[in-house]
Amino acid sequence: xxxxxxxxxxxxxxxxxxxxxxxALVSQCPALDEKMRATGKLLVSASLGDLDRxxxxxxxxxxxxxxxxxxxxxKEVVGGLFIIEADSHDEALHIxxxxxxxxxxEEGGWAVELIPMDFYxxx
Length: 123
Fold this sequence. Notes:
34% strand; Alpha-Beta Plaits; 123 residues; four-stranded antiparallel beta sheet
């Protein structure tokens, strides 16, 4: 089964971390990302762009309305995503627990949400 992992952070908390501490924190991420890749179960992994470049599209009065920023009003924001294919839910949890947002950055409000998904490929 495939699982979507959403890596969250809290912008206000992250902004409060000293720049040298952010650099030290982020420098630990590549090794954890590599650990996830080494399982052979990681299908996709991506960091998402700056929030001020996000756009939201909604239907309004028969037209598509485009607005700035994330759709949801929330203290946490999705900063990255990954898709894994695991043989069991426990295996998916084990692999997701390797992600930097599940391992580091407590002071930045990092977290991972793991979501089972029905996956369809269009042809």
